[in-house]
């Protein structure tokens, strides 16, 4: 008999409520199916003491899983209960009634990554930046599982694949399906002996041979996903010259033979920045290393993918700037066009574009400075691309009325950093005290009461919809999505808040440095401090007080 401990993090939902939400599991509400059973969408009330329903995904185990899948069902509940991270699928509740086993998750608007890789049309609509954003998010989620779920604890997923990476409406990736996952507990434990499981094509060969699974087994599987994203095909469907490859060995061979272009998704080639792709491919290759010890930890995978993502954003910003000032559309900036760019930015670009630099970078002698040449100037000279881009965005119609997608993604990253900084108890929500700390840190004595009113159930004064509980959940308070909504609706100025918090962080770091200097001075022998006409300790103390006075004014 299946036994579940009552969880304060999950809601137990009745079968009657689920039948009503799915219209008795109607086929038109089915959004996915597999060996485990079916997934439906429907509206359910999730927050405690709430009558407002939100759209959720309802996973119903089939009859076979109902009899035999109890361990996986319990594992998913146990491992996801209380785990909150922007890149993990959120488990809201469960149902165990009349031999039914049902799990209730947050709804991922765009479905799973594999759906984009199965359908050529959808894949070609997936830009390189969108793919990078998905990979970065999934890597962050896996890094959290491996390193941050608890003291001396880690979760090995054991079934990382593109079908288990879900995507929400903002292209944020969510790692899902923890039925096969296992917990590592203990500071000296880094492997588990268990019968090999997972999905053919993604399972690490060593795990299949030895039944020993480690974090590096997940890293290998994630490397397969990275090559899938690069090629625009599932791992069993990489097509070359009318045939299909069987990665990873095939993908690695093409990389080692410098012929990776043959398997890269053709729809990406023109838009991809070479350095971005090279960084991406290098870390993907390392993930597939035969020796487990040579594979990178997920923390480094995150860093390299973020680097690839930022390189692509820089390239696209330069491309937008270049296209705006390439007035005759000949693929080069002549001296007049480059001069117009320099005047518009009034930045260090002027000091970096004399004749010597102009001819050092890539240029067409007739047309002038190429787009790649302009990027090279920004990369190699003391010029702030982000500052120039912001200045031009304000001065000229740089986007022709339509902002590029990476603008929204940069906003998301800023909101995420703010949210994580003030979610002090890491419960996935900002309660009134945490919200007050956030607003007090950015705008002292302003807007606090307005947001507190919202959290206490008066959302209409802020213009929120009747489904506001999608954004504020019970006692946890304002979710990341809710904070995004507030900033998107202009209730708070994101850029000003982010700059204020960055400056506050620098001030705190400086203060800590001065206090450290003073403490060191206090520990020095008085005989040494008194060797100088003006006592060193008094001087240091005076400097610390002066700094504190200045920073608090």
From TrEMBL:
SMART domains: EFh (SM00054), S_TKc (SM00220). Residues 25-309 form the Protein kinase domain. It comes from the Eukaryota. This is non-specific serine/threonine protein kinase. GO terms for molecular function: ATP binding; calcium ion binding; protein kinase activity; protein serine/threonine kinase activity; transmembrane receptor protein tyrosine kinase activity. Residues 313-348, 410-445 form the EF-hand domain. It comes from Helianthus annuus (Common sunflower). GO terms for cellular component: plasma membrane. Pfam families: EF-hand_5, PK_Tyr_Ser-Thr. InterPro entries: ANXUR1/2-like (IPR045272), EF-hand-dom_pair (IPR011992), EF_hand_dom (IPR002048), Kinase-like_dom_sf (IPR011009), Prot_kinase_dom (IPR000719), Protein_kinase_ATP_BS (IPR017441), Ser-Thr/Tyr_kinase_cat_dom (IPR001245), Ser/Thr_kinase_AS (IPR008271). It catalyses: L-seryl-[protein] + ATP = O-phospho-L-seryl-[protein] + ADP + H(+); L-threonyl-[protein] + ATP = O-phospho-L-threonyl-[protein] + ADP + H(+). Its EC number is 2.7.11.1. The chain crosses the membrane at residues 513-532. ATP binds at residue 59. Keywords: ATP-binding, Kinase, Membrane, Nucleotide-binding, Serine/threonine-protein kinase, Transferase, Transmembrane, Transmembrane helix. The keyword Transmembrane applies. Gene3D superfamilies: EF-hand (1.10.238.10), Phosphorylase Kinase, domain 1 (3.30.200.20), Transferase(Phosphotransferase) domain 1 (1.10.510.10). It is an enzyme of class 2 (transferase).
């Amino acid at each position: 008999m299946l036994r579940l401990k009552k969880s304060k993090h999950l809601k137990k939902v009745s079968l009657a409520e689920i039948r009503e939400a799915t219209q008795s599991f109607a086929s038109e509400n089915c959004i996915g199916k597999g060996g485990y059973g079916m997934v439906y969408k429907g509206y359910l009330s999730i927050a405690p003491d709430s009558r407002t329903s939100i759209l959720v995904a309802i996973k119903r185990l089939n009859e076979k899983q109902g009899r035999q899948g109890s361990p996986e069902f319990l594992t998913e509940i146990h491992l996801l209960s209380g785990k909150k991270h922007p890149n993990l699928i959120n488990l809201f509740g469960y149902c165990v009634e009349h031999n039914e086993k049902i799990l209730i998750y947050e709804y991922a608007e765009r479905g799973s990554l594999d759906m984009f890789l199965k359908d050529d049309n959808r894949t070609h609509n997936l830009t390189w930046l969108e793919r990078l954003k998905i990979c970065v998010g999934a890597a962050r989620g896996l890094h959290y599982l491996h390193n941050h779920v608890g003291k001396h604890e880690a979760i090995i997923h054991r079934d990382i694949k593109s079908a288990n990476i879900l995507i929400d409406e903002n292209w944020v990736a969510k790692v899902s399906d923890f039925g096969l996952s296992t917990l590592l507990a203990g500071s000296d434990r880094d492997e588990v002996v268990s019968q090999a499981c997972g999905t053919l094509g993604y399972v690490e060969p060593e795990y299949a041979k030895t039944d020993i699974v480690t974090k590096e087994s997940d890293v290998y599987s994630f490397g397969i996903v990275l090559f899938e994203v690069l090629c625009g095909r599932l791992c069993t469907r990489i097509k070359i010259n009318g045939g299909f490859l069987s990665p990873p060995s095939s993908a690695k061979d093409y990389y080692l033979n410098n012929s990776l272009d043959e398997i890269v998704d053709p729809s990406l080639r023109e838009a991809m920045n070479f350095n971005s792709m090279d960084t991406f491919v290098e870390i993907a290759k390392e993930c597939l290393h035969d020796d487990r010890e040579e594979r990178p930890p997920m923390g480094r995978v995150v860093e390299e993918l973020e680097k690839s993502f930022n390189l692509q954003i820089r390239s696209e910003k330069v491309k937008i700037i270049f296209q705006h000032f390439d007035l005759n559309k000949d693929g080069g900036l002549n001296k007049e066009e480059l001069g117009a760019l320099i005047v518009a930015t009034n930045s260090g670009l002027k000091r970096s574009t004399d004749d010597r630099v102009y001819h050092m970078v890539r240029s067409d002698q007739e047309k002038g400075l190429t787009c790649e040449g302009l990027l090279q100037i920004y990369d190699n000279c003391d010029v702030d691309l982000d500052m120039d881009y912001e200045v031009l965005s304000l001065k000229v119609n740089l986007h022709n009325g339509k902002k590029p997608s990476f603008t929204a993604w940069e906003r998301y990253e800023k909101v995420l950093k703010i949210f994580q900084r003030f979610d002090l108890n890491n419960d996935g929500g900002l309660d009134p005290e945490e919200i007050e700390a956030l607003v007090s840190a950015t705008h002292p004595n302003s807007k606090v009461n307005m947001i507190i009113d919202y959290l206490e159930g008066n959302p209409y004064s802020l213009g929120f919809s009747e489904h506001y509980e999608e954004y504020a959940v019970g006692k946890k308070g304002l979710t990341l999505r809710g904070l995004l909504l507030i900033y998107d609706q202009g209730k708070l100025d994101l850029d000003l808040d982010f700059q204020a918090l960055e400056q506050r962080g620098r001030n705190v770091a400086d203060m800590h440095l001065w206090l450290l200097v003073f403490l060191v001075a206090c520990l020095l022998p008085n005989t040494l401090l008194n060797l100088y006409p003006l006592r060193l300790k008094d001087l240091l103390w005076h400097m610390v007080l002066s700094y504190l006075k200045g920073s608090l004014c």
